[in-house]
Design goal:
The longest helix is centred in the last third of the chain and has 42 residues. The N and C termini lie far apart (54 Å). This protein has 9 helices and 2 strands; from the N terminus they run αααβααααβαα. A two-stranded parallel sheet has the order 1-2. It is globular. 65% of the residues lie in helices and 3% in strands. By secondary structure, it is mostly helical.
Protein backbone atom coordinates (compact mmCIF):
# COMPACT_ATOMS: atom_id res chain seq x y z
CA UNK A 1 0.00 0.00 0.00
CA UNK A 2 3.02 2.30 0.36
CA UNK A 3 3.41 2.26 -3.43
CA UNK A 4 -0.19 3.47 -3.71
CA UNK A 5 0.64 6.24 -1.25
CA UNK A 6 3.58 7.34 -3.39
CA UNK A 7 1.36 7.31 -6.47
CA UNK A 8 -1.25 9.40 -4.67
CA UNK A 9 1.27 11.99 -3.49
CA UNK A 10 3.62 12.34 -6.44
CA UNK A 11 1.30 11.75 -9.40
CA UNK A 12 -0.18 15.16 -10.24
CA UNK A 13 -3.40 13.57 -11.48
CA UNK A 14 -3.93 11.31 -8.45
CA UNK A 15 -6.02 12.02 -5.36
CA UNK A 16 -3.97 12.32 -2.13
CA UNK A 17 -4.55 9.79 0.62
CA UNK A 18 -7.32 10.61 3.09
CA UNK A 19 -7.22 9.75 6.77
CA UNK A 20 -9.29 6.65 6.00
CA UNK A 21 -6.55 5.33 3.72
CA UNK A 22 -3.81 6.25 6.19
CA UNK A 23 -5.74 4.42 8.90
CA UNK A 24 -5.81 1.33 6.69
CA UNK A 25 -2.06 1.52 6.13
CA UNK A 26 -1.00 2.44 9.68
CA UNK A 27 -3.72 0.76 11.75
CA UNK A 28 -1.27 -1.48 13.63
CA UNK A 29 1.11 1.31 14.64
CA UNK A 30 1.13 3.99 17.32
CA UNK A 31 4.25 5.72 16.00
CA UNK A 32 6.21 5.85 12.77
CA UNK A 33 9.69 6.96 11.79
CA UNK A 34 12.12 6.95 8.90
CA UNK A 35 11.55 5.63 5.37
CA UNK A 36 9.02 5.45 3.79
CA UNK A 37 6.91 7.53 6.22
CA UNK A 38 9.47 10.34 5.98
CA UNK A 39 8.20 11.19 2.51
CA UNK A 40 4.70 11.82 3.87
CA UNK A 41 5.31 13.79 7.05
CA UNK A 42 3.34 16.84 5.83
CA UNK A 43 0.38 14.67 4.83
CA UNK A 44 0.44 12.79 8.13
CA UNK A 45 0.49 15.81 10.44
CA UNK A 46 -2.54 17.15 8.57
CA UNK A 47 -4.34 13.78 8.59
CA UNK A 48 -3.63 13.32 12.31
CA UNK A 49 -3.96 16.74 13.99
CA UNK A 50 -3.78 15.07 17.40
CA UNK A 51 -0.39 13.50 16.67
CA UNK A 52 2.82 14.78 18.23
CA UNK A 53 6.10 15.09 16.39
CA UNK A 54 9.53 14.31 17.82
CA UNK A 55 12.36 15.89 15.84
CA UNK A 56 15.86 14.65 16.59
CA UNK A 57 18.64 16.50 14.80
CA UNK A 58 22.12 15.01 14.68
CA UNK A 59 25.52 16.35 13.74
CA UNK A 60 25.18 16.42 9.97
CA UNK A 61 28.59 14.92 9.21
CA UNK A 62 28.08 12.01 11.61
CA UNK A 63 24.58 11.50 10.22
CA UNK A 64 25.89 11.56 6.64
CA UNK A 65 28.48 8.88 7.38
CA UNK A 66 25.84 6.66 8.97
CA UNK A 67 23.38 7.35 6.13
CA UNK A 68 25.94 6.46 3.49
CA UNK A 69 26.88 3.18 5.16
CA UNK A 70 23.40 2.08 6.18
CA UNK A 71 21.26 3.40 3.33
CA UNK A 72 23.09 4.54 0.19
CA UNK A 73 25.48 1.61 -0.16
CA UNK A 74 22.81 -0.95 0.62
CA UNK A 75 20.10 0.56 -1.57
CA UNK A 76 22.24 0.81 -4.68
CA UNK A 77 24.42 -2.26 -4.11
CA UNK A 78 24.28 -4.81 -6.92
CA UNK A 79 23.88 -7.89 -4.71
CA UNK A 80 20.94 -6.50 -2.78
CA UNK A 81 19.19 -5.49 -5.97
CA UNK A 82 19.90 -8.87 -7.54
CA UNK A 83 18.32 -10.57 -4.52
CA UNK A 84 15.33 -8.23 -4.78
CA UNK A 85 14.93 -9.10 -8.47
CA UNK A 86 14.87 -12.84 -7.68
CA UNK A 87 12.77 -12.67 -4.51
CA UNK A 88 9.67 -10.69 -5.37
CA UNK A 89 7.42 -11.57 -2.44
CA UNK A 90 9.36 -9.87 0.39
CA UNK A 91 12.72 -8.33 -0.52
CA UNK A 92 11.51 -6.95 -3.84
CA UNK A 93 8.64 -4.88 -2.40
CA UNK A 94 10.92 -3.44 0.30
CA UNK A 95 13.44 -2.42 -2.35
CA UNK A 96 10.70 -0.95 -4.54
CA UNK A 97 9.31 1.23 -1.72
CA UNK A 98 12.79 2.55 -0.88
CA UNK A 99 13.46 3.30 -4.53
CA UNK A 100 10.21 5.24 -4.79
CA UNK A 101 11.23 7.26 -1.73
CA UNK A 102 14.63 7.99 -3.30
CA UNK A 103 13.27 8.92 -6.73
CA UNK A 104 10.07 10.73 -5.69
CA UNK A 105 11.06 12.44 -2.44
CA UNK A 106 14.82 12.83 -2.72
CA UNK A 107 14.72 13.23 -6.50
CA UNK A 108 17.77 11.00 -7.01
CA UNK A 109 18.38 8.07 -9.34
CA UNK A 110 21.78 6.71 -8.35
CA UNK A 111 24.13 6.36 -5.39
CA UNK A 112 26.19 9.33 -6.58
CA UNK A 113 23.11 11.52 -6.85
CA UNK A 114 21.96 10.44 -3.40
CA UNK A 115 25.33 11.31 -1.87
CA UNK A 116 25.33 14.69 -3.59
CA UNK A 117 21.81 15.57 -2.42
CA UNK A 118 21.76 14.05 1.06
CA UNK A 119 23.06 16.93 3.21
CA UNK A 120 20.93 19.59 1.53
CA UNK A 121 17.84 17.40 1.80
CA UNK A 122 18.64 16.84 5.47
CA UNK A 123 18.85 20.58 6.17
CA UNK A 124 15.75 21.29 4.11
CA UNK A 125 13.75 18.72 6.03
CA UNK A 126 14.51 20.21 9.43
CA UNK A 127 13.76 23.75 8.25
CA UNK A 128 10.41 22.59 6.82
CA UNK A 129 9.37 20.70 9.95
CA UNK A 130 10.17 23.65 12.23
CA UNK A 131 8.27 25.99 9.93
CA UNK A 132 5.15 23.87 9.51
CA UNK A 133 4.62 22.08 12.84
CA UNK A 134 2.97 24.11 15.63
CA UNK A 135 5.28 24.48 18.64
CA UNK A 136 2.85 22.73 20.98
CA UNK A 137 3.01 19.61 18.79
CA UNK A 138 6.80 19.56 18.36
CA UNK A 139 9.57 18.29 20.61
CA UNK A 140 13.13 18.88 19.50
CA UNK A 141 14.79 15.99 21.28
CA UNK A 142 18.53 15.93 21.92
CA UNK A 143 20.32 12.59 22.07
CA UNK A 144 21.46 11.90 25.61
CA UNK A 145 18.52 13.72 27.24
CA UNK A 146 17.03 10.48 28.54
CA UNK A 147 13.38 9.69 29.13
CA UNK A 148 12.20 12.83 30.94
CA UNK A 149 11.67 15.35 28.09
CA UNK A 150 10.18 12.67 25.84
CA UNK A 151 7.78 11.32 28.47
CA UNK A 152 6.75 14.81 29.60
CA UNK A 153 5.98 15.77 26.01
CA UNK A 154 3.95 12.59 25.40
CA UNK A 155 2.23 12.65 28.79
CA UNK A 156 3.61 9.27 29.78
CA UNK A 157 5.29 8.06 32.98
CA UNK A 158 9.07 7.73 32.98
CA UNK A 159 10.01 4.01 32.63
CA UNK A 160 12.14 2.44 35.32
CA UNK A 161 14.64 1.18 32.75
CA UNK A 162 17.73 2.68 31.17
CA UNK A 163 17.15 4.68 27.99
CA UNK A 164 18.18 2.52 25.00
CA UNK A 165 21.45 3.33 23.30
CA UNK A 166 21.62 1.82 19.80
CA UNK A 167 24.28 2.15 17.16
CA UNK A 168 22.14 3.30 14.23
CA UNK A 169 24.45 2.05 11.49
CA UNK A 170 24.88 -1.36 13.10
CA UNK A 171 21.14 -1.59 13.76
CA UNK A 172 20.29 -0.77 10.14
CA UNK A 173 22.84 -3.24 8.82
CA UNK A 174 21.35 -5.92 11.05
CA UNK A 175 17.86 -5.18 9.70
CA UNK A 176 19.16 -5.43 6.14
CA UNK A 177 20.86 -8.72 7.04
CA UNK A 178 17.59 -10.11 8.42
CA UNK A 179 15.76 -9.08 5.23
CA UNK A 180 18.45 -10.67 3.07
CA UNK A 181 18.43 -13.94 5.04
CA UNK A 182 14.66 -14.15 4.81
CA UNK A 183 14.82 -13.48 1.08
CA UNK A 184 17.48 -16.13 0.54
CA UNK A 185 15.52 -18.66 2.58
CA UNK A 186 12.41 -17.94 0.50
CA UNK A 187 14.39 -18.59 -2.68
CA UNK A 188 15.77 -21.85 -1.23
CA UNK A 189 12.32 -22.96 -0.09
CA UNK A 190 10.81 -22.26 -3.50
CA UNK A 191 13.71 -24.07 -5.15
CA UNK A 192 13.17 -27.11 -2.95
CA UNK A 193 9.44 -27.04 -3.70
CA UNK A 194 10.32 -27.41 -7.38
CA UNK A 195 13.34 -29.68 -7.00
CA UNK A 196 12.00 -32.32 -4.58
CA UNK A 197 9.10 -33.56 -6.76
CA UNK A 198 11.46 -33.78 -9.73
CA UNK A 199 14.06 -35.62 -7.65
CA UNK A 200 11.48 -38.05 -6.23
CA UNK A 201 10.01 -38.72 -9.66
CA UNK A 202 13.48 -39.36 -11.07
CA UNK A 203 14.36 -41.67 -8.15
CA UNK A 204 11.13 -43.61 -8.61
CA UNK A 205 11.81 -43.93 -12.35
CA UNK A 206 15.29 -45.26 -11.57
CA UNK A 207 13.90 -47.85 -9.16
CA UNK A 208 11.26 -49.06 -11.57
CA UNK A 209 13.32 -49.20 -14.75
CA UNK A 210 16.88 -49.86 -13.70
Amino acid sequence: MWIQAFDAKFDAEAEPFTRTQWDQLLAEYGAITDVPALAFWQDLIVAYPEAKIVLMERDIDRWYKSFDEAVTKMMWGKWGNLLADFEGSFVGPIRDVHMRWAKDWMQVHSADEMRAAAKEKYKEHYVSVRKMVPRERLLEYTLGSGWEPLCTFLGKPVPDVEFPNINETASMQEKVSIIARRGLWTIVRKGLTWFLPVFLAFSLWKLLYS
